[in-house]
Amino acid sequence: MNQQLAGFAPAPVAARMENHGNHMLKVAMQSGSDLLARVGSMVAYEGFVQYEPNPPAVRQIARDWATGEGAPLMKCSGDGLLYLADYGANVVVINLNGDGISVNATNLLAFDAHLQWGVERVKGLAKFAGQGMWNTKISGQGWVALTSRGKPIVVDCGGGEDETYVDPDALVAWSPNLKVKGKRTFKAGSLIGRGSGEAFQMAFSGQGIVVVQPSEDSTDRLRVRG
């Protein structure tokens, strides 16, 4: 039986964050290199790993992110291997290497605690979404893990004049240097996307990428303030 299951054993550690299959994240934990992860995402660990749900620093930074209860994050610390997942969603691992990324909060699985991060208003959308929309920007030298409901597509905006249009309910993340604006698409008799047509779409232009998932799950999307 052990021989039959050998193919599912984790590979030797090669980086701070790695995929184990398409739907699980493996994190190499070391003392002094804490991790912030979505509460409830831990599925297994080896070694000695401690958890602190919604630590004070997170509550202070992420008060606007949420719900009134703060961001659903926990601090993970210790030595060993930590395995995270989010209800079978695909996991995308990114080494920022000094760059930044703007992430939909519901698609944020984990990131290195030393990275710079905060909640920011998405510019250019106030007239489409009441007082505006909010996202989480992360930058610096370190690792980030995102989730996607299905295998995502990464669109390179290319820096040209053409804009890339995305349904906000399918948006996962984008390069923070991209220009963003809204575009209304709902008209009587117009069927764009699912249901009776989307109220608006997000248009991206400039040099950078947009990550889009093959799902229009509108649960807890980009926070709308209105």
From TrEMBL:
<dbReference type="InterPro" id="IPR036983">
    <property type="entry name" value="AIM24_sf"/>
</dbReference>
<dbReference type="InterPro" id="IPR002838">
    <property type="entry name" value="AIM24"/>
</dbReference>
<dbReference type="InterPro" id="IPR016031">
    <property type="entry name" value="Trp_RNA-bd_attenuator-like_dom"/>
</dbReference>
<protein>
    <submittedName>
        <fullName>AIM24 family protein</fullName>
    </submittedName>
</protein>
<dbReference type="Pfam" id="PF01987">
    <property type="entry name" value="AIM24"/>
</dbReference>
